[in-house]
Amino acid sequence: VADFDGDGTDELVIGGAYVNSGYRGGVFVLDSSDATTWAGDITDYEDTRIDAAGSYTYWGTMGQAQGDVSGDGTPDLLVVGTDRYYASYYGSIAGSLFSGSDLEDGEGDDAYVQFSGSRSNNGYTKAASHADIDGDGFADVIITDPYGEDTANREGWVTLFTSGSMTAGNYDLQDDADLVVYGDNESDALG
């Protein structure tokens, strides 16, 4: 939930890991100013629809709140899924960060920031982008993965990307994060 269009009313963002065939998830942005008229198929009320890039991504998971990562004064939209098995074959990505002031119909790989390198399958990754961890006044990106570090042992990890260090591009969850915290023991599934 966030006010992406600046009209003073929050938009409702709903994601689903299976909303498209081939486990190709997606998100719908609905203008809540007309919420009292909603009844029926979500596609009748969407203002914006963004579909996952590639198949078998389980893409469509979001934090409960969205923050301004880019620093333009508008909340940005962070959506995650998984790319563990399918990145090279299906073109899937682990996460996408969209400029909230420029949301439009499209696909996950249209985002100005993309994340890769998840270890989970079946959509276990989680995300948050409303907290300012480093105190610079802008929201930072947190992506968790309970299979992170060692998929077989499931220690799990929590990754942090500070907004000040991010520009448009692709970021690996382990190699490019400003902070990675791992589970201490086998099967901790941290995150």
Can you characterise this structure?
- It is a single chain.
- This protein has 1 helix and 12 strands.
- The protein is mainly β and 191 residues long.
- The two termini are 22 Å apart.
Summary keywords:
191 residues, mainly beta, four-stranded mixed β-sheet, 1 helix, 12 strands, 2% helix, 28% strand, globular
Average pLDDT reading: 82
Cα-atom radius of gyration: 16 Å
Question: Into which percent range does the helicity of residues fall?
Answer: under 10%
Tell me which oligomeric state these chains represent. single chain
The total count of strands amounts to: 12
Amino- and carboxy-terminal Cα gap: 22 Å
As a percent range, the share of strand residues is 25-35%
Question: In order across it, which strands form the biggest sheet?
Answer: 1-2-3-6
Shape, principal axes of CA atoms: globular
* Secondary structure category: mainly beta
Order of helices and strands: EEEEHEEEEEEEE
**Count of helix runs:** 1
Summarize the main sheet. Answer: 4 strands, mixed
Concise account of the structure shown:
This protein has one helix at residues 87-90, and strands at residues 11-16, 26-31, 46-51, 77-80, 95-98, 106-107, 113-116, 126-128, 141-145, 157-161, 169-172, 179-182. The protein is mostly beta strands and 191 residues long. The chain is globular.
Please render the helix and strand layout as text.
Layout: E1 11-16, E2 26-31, E3 46-51, E4 77-80, H1 87-90, E5 95-98, E6 106-107, E7 113-116, E8 126-128, E9 141-145, E10 157-161, E11 169-172, E12 179-182
Parallel strand pairs: 3-6, 7-11
Antiparallel strand pairs: 1-2, 2-3, 4-5, 5-7, 8-9, 9-10, 10-12
